[in-house]
Model the fold of this input.
Amino acid sequence: MALNLEALGKPLGPITKDYDWKDAVLYALGVGAGFDEIEYTYEKQLKVLPSFSIAAVFNFFPLFCAEANVNLAGILHGEQELIFHQPIPAEGTLKTSGRLTHFYDKGKDKGALVVGESDTWHSNGKRLFTSRLTLFSRLDGGFGGENTPPPTLVMPERTPDIEIEDAPTRDQPLLYRLSGDIFPLHVDQDFAEMAGFERPIMHGLCTHGFACRALIKSLVPGRPELVRRMSCRFTKPLYPGDPIRTQIWRENDGRALWRVVNARSGATVIDRGVFAYGEIPEHAIRFDGRVAIVTGAGGGLGRAYALELARRGAKVVVNDLGGARDGAGAGSAAPAEAVVAEITAAGGEAVANFDSVATAEGGAAIVEAALAAFGTVDIVINNAGILRDKSFAKMTPEHWQAVVDVHLSGAFHVTRPAFAVMKAKGYGRVVMTTSAAGLYGNFGQTNYSAAKLGLVGLMHTLKLEGARYGIKVNTIAPLAASRLTADVMPADLYAQMKPEFVVPMTLFLCAEECPVSGNIYNAGMGFFNRAAVVTGPGTVVRGAGDYPSVEEVAAAMDRIATLEGGKTYAQLNDQLADVLSAFDAPADDAVAGPGDGGRGGMSVAQVFEAMPAAFRPEAAAGVSVVFQYRISGEDGGDWHCAVDDGQCQVLSGQHERPTCTLLMAAPDFLAMMAGRLPPMQAFNTGKLRIEGDIMKSQLIEKLFKR
Done:
């Protein structure tokens, strides 16, 4: 038996579960609640324990294990993180989807860690919680994978601020398992002995539920809706009937560390616990559980991004080389470490990184720092930059290359390994940093301008390649004071251009709620707008000879140069389609009007009647295909066109075995046949759908005259 490494990143689910107040009460009883916590055990004004989220999705665990192909005889719950987005209602239907995110190899005789992530939504339309689960699979190590990242959380050595005693009964697993965790390790003597235990052990998640109760009672009494995050590591088994003690250390307002010890033996059974709590305004954008990389984060914009991401719940890799404005010097760890200190002092999580973005090795090391510290990457803000301003006449190759290496190549070096992680998990947000100098030009900055506009091109292609994987890529053009501009602008203007004015737009582009990809936004001083490459409608210049002359182009410049009626394009093919369609317009540039009935007033049926006459037999030698057309709406119907070695037959109705099927609404089909809707544009915009062998559909234009 071996782990299914091919399952990494594969979507799991969705699965659904109906529940009501009795399920929530049964869980509360299973983790020790009683009359002294009647808010969890009586249906009148019932409140649901946040840790019930585990019980609510127990049916997701078998799917997780089956897909990973773990050896069930050797699995233990290793780590658990819960991030709460909304209080859990007392009843409803839950829908959970997720994926396996990591396989870590501890060694042949030491086991493996299998990590997965899931999101659960309620039937009220709200996302309730995110779960990050780590299974310790004791019998599955030695497959040659990377080792586990070292822990970053250090527990306090001082005496706990609070200690809560509890006494799970010897029969506790029998009650708890009724909430769904029916794994035999917790009830079956023979199975427990086979797994290496003297008798059945407590469910780790049952102990976790006891701890959740203790934390709420101590920090937010009676208000489970304030719980924002709860994470921990399961370290030792606990036998039913052993008393427990939950130890709590207050860090600051809104965050505490915790562990659970066996009150009889003193052994730690749950360790490295983090508990976050507090009010979250309605519709607040949060990054709880997300991992962000911010390059050039030792000051200015990068620092502002990192601080606000952390304040909103993200774990942050603060990257900064610590060099001079022009990139010179040996660098310093101080700027990045200072920002990390600010974040941790405020109760956030962050690590410093000092690698250069200007090399592939540096970019890989930055991403590896995120994986080592936090296990994943969700967000990349490419913010690092240097300046080496010179007029073009004085620009040296060294000045040019140094700026391009940091700005353009740097974004590539960091984004590339991060993109692989995002692709595997099916989620990611990437922000490029351009500049008004790149969009509009600025004297003395040819190197900087070229690099900054290059980032826009990088964005446009990444938005296409990342779309199917849930990765959104956008670009910010900040107008803000930084170390790069400290001495090149008037002091009064510099004071107005605080980085904090840019932060809201940039963080929105990093948020799960961001609906756009491939856009550019200017931001500064509280002013925001979108920038775009706008293409005018243009015109076809029909020359007297084979090609238009220089003079004929000069005469048409007014029509060529106008941006009136201009548009933006989502991709190259859309623009190319418009260029090709321009040649189908009459010579006087008139365009067929909406009342022309499509192809010269033809109906859909008449178009198919005319198809045999448009057939090119010479192009069909050796070709055997069947094109099925399904035209919807008024005047629609089904037709198929069978081509066989130079012969063509068009019939109404459906063919039994079409090579491909083309689906269109009647008006769109007539517009396409009239030349007013290019086929590629129709396909890219969803007006034309193709089922079956999509490549064979491209033969249509070869086999038929327009």
Notes: The CA atoms of residues 191 and 197 lie 9 Å apart. The mean pLDDT is 88.
